[in-house]
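Request: When convenient, would you put together a sequence paired with its structure tokens?
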Amino acid sequence: MKSKILSLLLTTGITSCVYAQDNLKYQLPPKSIVDLVDAPSNPTTEFNKDGSLMLILKAPGYASMQHVAQPVIGVAGIKINPANNSTESEVAGVYESIMLKDIKTGKESALQGLPEKYRISNISWSPDGKYFAFTNNDMKGVELWYADAKTLQAKKLSNEFLNDAFGVTLQWNPDSKHILAQFIISSRGQQPVESIVPTGPVVQENLGVVTPSRTYQYLLQNPYDESLMEYFLTSQLKSVDLSGNATDISVPKIYSKVAYSPNGKYLMVQTVQKPYSYLVPINYFPLNTDILDASGKLVKALYQAPLADKLPTGFDVVATGPRAYEWRADAPETLAWAEAQDEGNPKNNTPFHDALFTLKAPFKAAPKKIFLIASRYSGVEWGNEKYAIVKERSRKTRMTKLTVINPENGKVVKAMPGTSSENAYIDPGRFVHTSHRLLFDKGTRPVVFTIGNGASPQGDRPFIMKWDLISNKQDTLFKSKAPFYEEPVFFNNTGTVYISKESAEETPNIYAVSLQDRTEKKITDFADPYPSLKGVQKTLLSYPRKDGIKLSATLYLPKDYKKEDGPLPVLIWAYPREFKSLSAAGEVKGSPYRFTRLAFRSPVYWVTRGYAILDNADMPVVGEGKNEPNDTFLEQIEDNAQSLINYVVNMGVADRKRIAVGGHSYGAFMTANLLAHTDLFAAGIARSGAYNRTLTPFGFQGEERTFWEVPEVYNKMAPFNFANKIKTPILLTHGIDDDNSGTFPIQSERLYSAIKGHGGTVRLVMLPKEFHGYRSRESVMHTFWEQDRWLETYVKNKK
């Protein structure tokens, strides 16, 4: 918490100085933008096990500053809302409206028994599909609720509050009759109070051991912070039946993970242990993994993972010892995990870097090593006693591989060829599951199903694929057809698929599609939340970079615009991405048939202000072979920008002299670099970025090398080092409480000071109570007001 307060104190001087010019209060952008910001969000849907019932959920709009301004305590790398012991301050995944729809009858029903106002989250269907559990995130505490899908009756199951700050808040027992939840300890008392009198210095020491770590915010700093962490994160597990009767399970601890065995007889629990660290967040703290019986009695102590604060730098580095514990979803009571064979360092030369182990109940035998993995383990798709799919990957080489094995003995059934994780055109998609296991087709062969985005030279075309894992025969059962974007959202191999169907003009709605004759039935009728965007012209562009790479961007033009009207002012919005191959970098991304969705990071609002918008403009940075992408970062982002500008200028829709560039986070970093090293733009907008790479010396984004290994790369890429060259007007915004790794508020403060000190045109807007993403309506509206003024002054009406 003190780190947050200190950050606030450090930024107050600069923030006050900036706003003293106008004595600003929160402002509103033009009405066309206000109406879009305040538009209702499109509902989301969740199906039960067999697809017979569907929840229709509506999220609230942007929170008020009154809600966002609730106290936030940062401990061990996480943020806690102390008012209700949750992380609900992030507001994602929270809903203010819920309806239940019967797919067969088409009837929509409201739940009975809910309070007048509620904020629902943590929604979880019971395994049998008859009930669903959820939490009501009240300002005073997080309540446990469930609803009966047949009677439509909702019920609060306990007057005690849940601990929603860390770990698994709630989950169903496989019997569908009990809910396991983590509760605040009723006897914990008042929040610890920090003494104003220190008891001694805070000392950290390293005795010659290499302990690199990336930059983190909200780390523990002293014994008081440790007491705060224990106070807010310690939970009591309780098994609660649907009548509200609760039984304590085990004893209060800080639970990182809790999971039932598929038969419900055992629990695998992972608990955070001492010693804590002031260098890394809680995910690296010592962790005990144990097996309990369903009543909470210890069956077997599996492993005590030590503090992982001395890991080497680089991609694919993992801790030594067992990790990634999970139950075999296809077996009643068998545990599985991975273990590094290279001391956790992929740079160590060994034929196998990981191994897969299993251990069956009663957990008294020695673990069984069933499969050796050439690169790094990334999970298992469990099927049945004959077939499972082991996934492995290498982040450094961008290679992935699937191997079909017998999960009982580890024998290889089929080794699939390795593929590039960057090559979206050949991505088979994600596997379809039933009860957490692979969904198999009828018959004895391992025939499975996948759902994918369907990236192609024509844009994304989502699909359902039937895949024989032995013969490798692949049959497409469903594929999106133009001029629509049709995304499968539920499939259980009964001849019907539920899809979300949309177009550039039509809002997404749910349809039931027969796979036999492609007939479809509309299930929902969601209204267009953005009627003011009707008629806006949307095009997916494909254009070449000078080295031959095909780039793409989505172009939005104002309604009724014609080329005869003359070229428009332009706003380009982008985010750089690293690749190891030219072919992958040049793949078409996105779809021209998607309905426009607006969020605070979207630039599309400004199409209503007469701008041509280029959203998701490709900014690939490629390093093939021994070359790394960042070795030529500056040259490549300039080539990307120049190619796009030339293309849209030649189209006749863009005025070369009136083009702005902007981005959020790494996109802000890109923006500052483009302004420092090119004269392509009239203005820039950089939100919540990092600009001094010496403040992220142990790696950043896709860069695994440290500052001391390649200081020339870090120095060359840092726009702070070239602040004297940034003469193009740049607007900087940043959340005062940004805790994202590497993008601390000081990054924007220092760049502002450096540009100002060299006479540049720059404005810094620091947003109180905001994190890396902006959450309050007041902050979003004000940010858009700032952006609109900047664009109107330095782009549209450029002198």
